[in-house]
Design brief:
Length: about 575
């Protein structure tokens, strides 16, 4: 009987593990965080996006993918080119897709395919020649003056049919070859959709719809979600009178931003249909990416009507099947942009960011501060291949940290830090404990702090594991711990040297008042590794000069490491 039961148990376990193995990538919620579950575990995408032409030859794919593995990426974003997939109408060639999947498997990478279909950076440059030539069947958008643009019209059913047919074939192909292994984990639908030159299309059909009544679906949405609308949309709507019936201009006012809202509705409706068609054959997570409305540009100067934060309600209402709107970050103001896209109704994924040395700490910041799904510098194959390059060091440590970060996401105990020369300090408070976090170069001991060098950004993740136990990980940061009593008492701070003694004499006479209360001391600072199961592995104790004789925990600007800090309280 016992033997029978164990056989039964074993076969049940075996079947269960097979079922578990074949789980498709999907989303799960943990507290306030949305997690991407891959092979049954929440994963952070330590990713990079290939340059636009880097997946158009099998030789390039074979050359690049092993480098990505050596760099420590776990995911690569790869263009799927419509013109090369369907060079002749109805004849499909998936050899580049197959090559990418084969190489990804060989190099332990996951893939996100980017459907460069009807639109890429607004334009229709990746549409096949048979589509481009037949502009009567596949019409273009027009400017106000009637000039045709190389932007296929989202109002054309023929455009949609041709684009979606190829997209569905791609999804079918991926389903056929990948529904067991799940190398492909997500799909980006089109690329940086948006209108250029004008904020909307002025073709006949577009004009007709622009002068028609707002779709009922949108008026119902506005009423139902009034309290949670994006503040920009809410204000615009209210300033125009808050009407729920009328044409686009009657409801939102007469300006180019209304043109943009109108256009966003139709782009999003198009994408919704694409996703529905694609998901009928294979149910993968899907998202859209946006070029930013930055540098004081107006709609049409930037790709108008794309999946931008201020248009999130329009996109959500017209395209509820989209999993997230993702920002492509090439401009200054990284923390502001990321905050705009981490919303209560939008998890943060950064599919593109300019490849630069500061990306290493920025990756730490978004995972710590915003429970990001992933981080992906653009043209990743151009990364210098030195094991000290910040992004490579950063991904190495983030990979280690993944079991811990995913355990603490969405629970209010994790924060991200990012500092530069202008933003040097942030104070984090949990209960009675205050963490005074600063850029490493606020310590004047490194010549680069004061010799006019541009400071590399410093940043990291802080995790409060318990009341008196913290993990500090990243690069270029220093953290002091103070009780709330100490902050209230405003203890006088003197400039100390590296040894912890007053740097210059004669400043000792500052009168300080101590009204009582407790102080926080550092019990220990250990540099640690994280094991695959999330347990901590001691490397070395950092004490004496390395923690300023118990005054702080720090990580220099040229290294990435993980510190385990224990605190205690004294009176
Ligand atoms: C954003 C686009 O999405 C990318 O495909 C690429 O064109 C980069 N800009 C910059 O070159």
């Amino acid at each position: 009987m016992k033997i029978f039961l164990s056989i039964l148990c074993l076969s049940w376990l075996f079947t269960a593990s097979l079922v578990a193995q074949s789980q498709i990538p999907h989303w799960e919620q943990q507290g306030t965080a949305t997690q991407l579950i891959i092979n049954n575990e929440p994963k952070l995408l330590l990713a990079g996006e290939l340059g636009n032409s880097s997946a158009s030859s099998p030789q390039d794919i074979e050359r690049i993918f092993p480098k990505l593995q050596r760099m420590g990426l776990n995911t690569v974003l790869v263009p799927a080119y419509w013109d090369l997939i369907e060079p002749q109408e109805g004849k499909f060639n998936f050899s580049l897709i197959d090559k990418a999947i084969e190489q990804a498997r060989k190099n332990e990478l996951k893939i996100i395919f980017l459907w460069f279909g009807a639109w890429k950076n607004s334009m229709s440059c990746y549409a096949p020649m048979w589509f481009k030539n037949n502009y009567k069947k596949y019409p273009r958008t027009r400017t106000e003056t009637g000039k045709p643009l190389e932007i296929a019209s989202p109002f054309s059913e023929n455009v949609f049919q041709a684009d979606s047919k190829a997209f569905v074939k791609l999804m079918q192909h991926i389903a056929q070859i990948d529904s067991t292994e799940h190398t492909v984990i997500m799909i980006q639908v089109e690329n940086e959709i948006g209108m250029l030159e004008n904020a909307r299309d002025y073709s006949e059909e577009a004009n007709r719809l622009f002068n028609s009544k707002l779709p009922d679906k949108l008026t119902t949405y506005l009423q139902k979600n009034k309290k949670q609308l994006h503040p920009w949309l809410y204000d615009k709507w209210q300033q125009a009178g808050g009407k729920i019936k009328g044409t686009w201009q009657e409801v939102f006012g007469k300006d180019i931003y209304t043109d943009e809202i109108f256009m966003a509705w139709y782009y999003a409706s198009y994408v919704e249909r694409m996703i529905q068609c694609g998901r009928k054959v294979y149910k993968l997570p899907m998202y859209v990416n946006a070029a930013m409305n930055s540098r004081g540009r107006k709609p049409g100067e930037y790709p108008a009507a794309g999946p931008l934060a201020h248009l999130i309600d329009i996109w959500h209402c017209a395209a509820p099947s989209i999993d997230l709107l993702a920002p492509d970050l090439y401009d200054k103001g990284f923390t502001d942009w990321t905050a705009q896209y981490k919303l209560h109704n939008n998890p943060l994924f950064i599919p593109e960011i300019r490849l630069e040395a500061n990306d290493g700490v920025r990756a730490f910041y978004v995972f710590g501060e915003h429970d990001a799904i992933g981080f992906s510098p653009f043209s990743i194959e151009d990364t210098p291949e030195s094991s000290n390059y910040p992004l490579i060091q950063s991904y190495r440590k983030l990979k280690e940290l993944m079991p811990i970060i995913t355990r603490y996401q969405g629970k209010g105990v994790m924060k991200g830090l990012l500092f530069d020369q202008n933003n040097k300090e942030r104070i984090l408070t949990w209960g009675e404990t205050n963490l005074i976090c600063r850029h490493f170069f606020t310590l004047p001991w490194d010549a680069r702090a004061t010799d006019g060098s541009i400071w590399p950004e410093g940043g990291g993740i802080i995790i409060r594991m318990s009341e008196d136990e913290y993990l500090i990980a990243g690069s270029g940061i220093v953290v002091e711990f103070k009780s709330s009593d100490e902050i209230d008492n405003k203890v006088e701070k003197k400039q100390l040297g590296e040894d912890g003694f007053v740097a210059t004499g004669g400043t000792q006479n500052v009168k300080e008042k101590w009204n009582g209360g407790s102080r926080i001391g550092i019990g220990s600072v250990d540099e640690v590794n994280i094991n695959a199961d999330g347990t901590l592995q001691y490397i070395r104790r950092l004490n004496g000069d390395q923690d300023h004789q118990g005054r702080h925990a720090r990580i220099g600007v040229d290294e990435f490491s993980i510190l385990h800090v224990r605190l205690y309280t004294y009176k």
